[in-house]
Amino acid sequence: MKILTLIKLTLDISQLKYESTGEPLTEIAPKKMGDSDKCAVEEAVRLKEKLGAYTVVATIGSTSENERIIRDAYAMGIDEGYIVKVEDPEILQATSIGKIVSSLVEKTGPYDLIILGAGSLDTHSYTLGSIIASKLNIPIIAGVDSLQYVDGFFEALCIMEDGAYTFRAKAPLVVTVTTEANEPRIPTLKTILRSKKMEVKTLTIHDLGVDDVVKVDLLDVKRYVVNRRKILWDASEDLEKAVDKFIEVLVSEGVAQ
Amino acid sequence: MSERYDVIIVGAGPAGLATAYFLVKKGFKVIVLERGSEPGSKNVFGGRIYSYVLDKYFSGWRSEAPVERWVRREKLSLLCKNDVVSLEYEIGREIDGYDSFTTFLSRFLKWMALRVEQEGAIVATSVRVDEVLFDDGKARGVRVGEDKLEAEYTVIAEGANTLLLEKHSLRDKISPKDITIGIKEVIKLGREKIEERFGLIGEEGLAQFLLSPLFGGGFIYTMKDYVSIGVVYRPLIKDQVEAKDVIEELRLHPSISKLIGDGIPIEYSAHIIREAGYRDLMSKPYGDRYLVVGDAAGLLLNTGFTIRGVDLAIESGRLAGEAIDRISKGEDPSIYVKLLRESEIIQMLKKFRGVPEVLSNHKIYTVYPEIACRILKNMYSVDESPITLRESIREATGSRFSMIKFILELLFMVKNL
Ligand SMILES: Cc1cc2nc3c(=O)[nH]c(=O)nc-3n(C[C@H](O)[C@H](O)[C@H](O)COP(=O)(O)OP(=O)(O)OC[C@H]3O[C@@H](n4cnc5c(N)ncnc54)[C@H](O)[C@@H]3O)c2cc1C
User: Fold this and answer.
1) Which pTM does this prediction carry?
2) Please, are residues B225 and B194 in contact by the beta-carbon 8 Å criterion?
3) Dihedral of the CA atoms A91, A93, A94, A97 (nearest 10)?
């Protein structure tokens, strides 16, 4: 079995700061492997441990930090890694990423399983998995909360608003996982040292036979602001009355009926 | 584990990375273990590094290293409640190169780590060393979680918070009175505003030191787009605000808030500072197969206005490198102390050994700034009866203590700082 995991270098949004005008200060925000991508890596490594799968990881980008996250994946147990060099990968359109990935699959595959995070921390369009599946013409199970391999089938549990669904599919397929899928392991000294010595392969989009990519025009990014009503009233005198007032406000704001 | 290294270095601060750099250049197989996710992610630092030490050992650094601004203006300010007295020194243009520069330590250490890796050492991050493995007093390597890593020599470069050294009883727990905390904030202001408000052109930078009854000692360093402000907190000063509010106090002082009040704080951090100076130096920063470098060994210079540790850390790393080379060729481990003693760093620390005493005299924060403000206020406030400098000094100091005592204290300060 051969597995390809896709990982993305994303902003650590928990550490994002903003201008007073609401624009995020992206240039100083730390970057890391996306949270659900990390779960995808963990899932691949577990399949490797259980079934002896060969695991490959790939990322798109052009900085030394891309190499860092490949090594982070190595430290978790991945066997081989590729960086596809593209400037400003964060504004690549998902269809272009799909094109790059399907060419990468042709060049380095075939793969039984392509696994990635359901959505990235920063742009989260949740479309990449489906685009890859349609380009490769293979099935997809999206938003997986738990993945098993049973009797030659991948069996996935997806918890949705209206219930828990179990899907099965045969390889080859695409799976996108949520951060519920597992608890990614913390690398040990031994695996970190090994990761430092492994080769990181780089490819250009031309190596993959892709000659043009489409970028998204980013018009504006603003912080999401919750406007608070800031209604205050004095409850020190008459608590009963204050509670009545509170309920009145909740009803008039449409919070309670 | 089968892998063996010649030297394991604990901590990728300036001391650890410098030790690695000099050792790997001498052909040792070196690994640096850092608990932070990247070199520099755990360090707190004000903002200035002195150039001389880089000129000596890192060719090409002036164009390569992540310099924010070259310090051309040095300013000392005494902050009173509303007034400020400042003394400013502008370094003449004809000077060849610059003596110091401002930088973010995180970026600077990333650059150092890159140089170290280019030379062939490994810098492994997210690795916290839990203990040094000793065999009959002889350091054999380290333990990280379940894993053991062995080496001929272990270098402890863990910084001011000496948990490993204390764990192995190689250093006494520091007494609370010899400890203070440095608190720092980075504020985004934008290049134009910085240059306009601080009177800087191009790559010029300002380093400013502050003394104030409100918070003790403080500093301001200008970066390209950011300003780093910080306080060396002295909890012993009477009526002082709490540590968590102290930086706010500085930021909101009328003379400071007009400069940076509209900036956006983007980083807040704090770190312990060892204050005992020369007294805090480890008398034996080595043992069988291990050495201690940088802040961990007490190699930090607190001149009262500035904290200097990075240049000393780099220099001690160089000496540790040379010592290990010589020890491996049969010399006694005490060669490390001998090299340290002969070096400028120990001379420098000796020279400033009176500082802790001066710093513990709260008058330098509480009384002197007030006096200075009063004297100048008297001199520059014009009304019908102008007063002389002598009268003004007498007026400002009179109610507090005698002129003679004031002069004696000033002399003591001058002698020790
Ligand atoms: C507020 C403040 C302002 C300062 N301003 C300046 C300034 O402007 N100029 C200047 O020159 N100096 C300044 N200093 C001092 C300077 O930051 C230090 O002297 C210098 O960083 C010391 O280097 P070091 O390598 O010895 O220790 P550190 O820089 O503290 O590095 C120690 C490293 O070891 C790591 N570590 C610790 N324990 C372990 C472990 N068990 N396993 C793995 N890793 C571990 C830490 O994560 C850290 O990265 C300032 C200090 C403070 C607190």
Assistant:
1) 0.85
2) yes
3) -80
ipTM of this predicted structure: 0.75
Phi, psi of B235, rounded to the nearest 5 degrees? -65, -15
Q: Is B384 on the interface with A (CB under 8 A)?
A: no
CA of residue B284 to ligand 1 center, whole Å: 20
In 3D space, the residue among B292, B296, B308, B180 whose CA is nearest the CA of residue B240 turns out to be: B180
Cβ B289 under 6 angstroms from ligand 1: no
CB spacing of B3 vs A193 below 8 angstroms: yes
**Do A189 and B31 lie within an 8 Å CB cutoff?**
no
B33 touches chain A (CB under 8 A): yes
Alpha-carbon span B296 to A21, nearest angstrom: 43
Length of chain B: 417
Task: Give the pair of three-digit tokens for residue B53.
Answer: 């030490």
Which residue in B34, B18, B33, B289 sits closest to B153, CA to CA?
B289
Ligand 1 pocket, residue B153 CB under 6 Å? no
Tokens of B350: 């000796």
Pairing of strands B307-308, B301-302: antiparallel
In whole angstroms, what is the distance from residue A80 CA to residue A48 CA?
13
In 3-state terms chain A splits into helix, strand, coil percentages (rounded to 5) of 35, 25, 40
Looking at the CA of residue B160, tell me the nearest atom of ligand 1. Answer: 30
**Can you tell me the distance from the alpha carbon of B11 to that of B298, in angstroms, rounded to the nearest whole number?**
15
Mutating which of A21, A33, A189 best tests the B interface, going by the most B Cβ atoms within 10 A?
Answer: A189
The answer to whether A36 and A115 have CB atoms below 8 angstroms apart is: no
Contacts with A95 (C-beta within 8 Å, 6 or more apart), sequence order: A131, A214
Place of tokens 């002197």: B368
Q: What 3-state class would DSSP assign to A191?
A: helix
Which secondary structure element, helix H or strand E, spans residue A149, and what is its range? strand A146-150
Neighbours of B90 (CB within 10 A): 12
How far out from the chain centre does Cα A92 lie?
15
Regarding the beta carbon of B144 and ligand 1, being less than 6 Å apart is answered: no
Q: For residue A23, give the chain B residue with the closest CA.
A: B264
pLDDT at B389: 66
Rounded to 5 degrees, φ, ψ at B354 are -80, -10
Per-residue model confidence as pLDDT tens for chain B (417 residues): 457 899 999 999 999 999 999 999 999 999 999 999 888 887 778 889 999 999 999 988 988 999 999 999 988 888 888 888 888 888 876 566 788 999 999 899 999 999 999 999 999 999 999 999 999 989 999 999 989 999 999 999 999 889 999 999 898 887 877 777 888 999 999 999 999 999 999 899 999 988 887 777 889 999 999 999 998 877 655 556 677 788 888 888 888 999 999 998 888 888 888 777 777 788 889 999 999 999 999 888 877 666 788 999 999 999 999 999 999 999 999 999 999 989 888 888 887 777 767 666 667 777 777 777 877 777 777 766 666 666 666 666 665 556 666 666 666 665 555
What are the residues whose beta carbons fall under 8 Å from the beta carbon of B56, sequence distance 6 or more? none
Question: Is B147 an interface residue toward A (CB < 8 Å)?
Answer: yes
Q: Is B122 on the interface with A (CB under 8 A)?
A: yes
Atom of ligand 1 nearest to the CA of B41: 49
CA–CA dist A176, A169 (Å, integer): 13
Main-chain dihedrals φ then ψ at residue A89, nearest 5 degrees:
-65, -20
Distance CA B162, CA B157 (A): 9
